[in-house]
Automatic annotation (TrEMBL):
CDD domains: vWFA. One of its GO terms (biological process) is snRNA 3'-end processing. GO terms for cellular component: integrator complex. Residues 3-132 form the VWFA domain. InterPro entries: Integrator_subunit6, VWF_A, vWFA_dom_sf. Pfam families: VWA_2. This is VWFA domain-containing protein. It comes from Esox lucius (Northern pike). The lineage of its organism: Eukaryota, Metazoa, Chordata, Craniata, Vertebrata. It comes from the Eukaryota.
Length: 169
């Protein structure tokens, strides 16, 4: 009885159109619909539970929870609109928080006792995005990647007005 969590990028960049005139968000919606139809044919998928989460800030990013029926899921999928900024890191964190909350509710995880290994509920996060630059909700580019690069490569070289060795200037 796995949980399949679809994390859909609903940033404004998903309004881009392909050469056929279809938006990226429409392609993402179609991909999820096809996946759901193909998965429904498999007898092993009878106990699957689906979640639909977008890049919107929590709690607005949860469009269909694990207790929603198939019709609600598909209705929410069709109603997705692209606006806002790409916040992949925040969206992934919200997705993991939702899965952890589900584990607490279902008794897989317990405070003080940890995880019960004999209860197993696999979860899959399927992320669909156009891959545009990561940004924050404040509109400022996410500098965390630059900080990581600086730690691994060292600080950027300082420019000097003196063309010769530092002893000469």
């Amino acid at each position: 009885m796995p949980i399949l969590l679809f994390l859909i990028d609903t940033s404004a960049s998903m309004n881009q159109r392909t050469y056929l005139g279809t938006t990226y968000l429409d392609i993402a919606k179609g991909a999820v619909e096809i996946f759901m139809k193909l998965r429904a044919r498999d007898p092993a998928s009878r106990g699957d539970r689906y979640m639909l989460v977008t890049f919107d800030d929590p709690p607005y990013g949860v469009k269909a929870g694990w207790k929603e029926n198939h019709a609600t899921f598909m209705s929410e999928l069709k109603n997705l609109q692209a606006s806002g900024l790409t916040t992949l890191g925040h969206a992934l964190r919200a997705a993991f928080d939702l899965l952890n909350l589900n584990r607490l509710v279902s008794g897989i995880d317990n405070y003080g006792q940890g995880r019960n290994p004999f209860f197993l509920e696999p979860s899959v996060i399927i992320t669909i995005t156009d891959g545009n630059k990561l940004t924050h909700t404040s509109g400022v580019p996410d500098e965390s990647w630059n900080k990581i690069l600086q730690r691994t490569q060292g600080p950027p070289a300082q420019a000097s007005a003196c063309p010769g060795p530092s002893e000469v200037c």
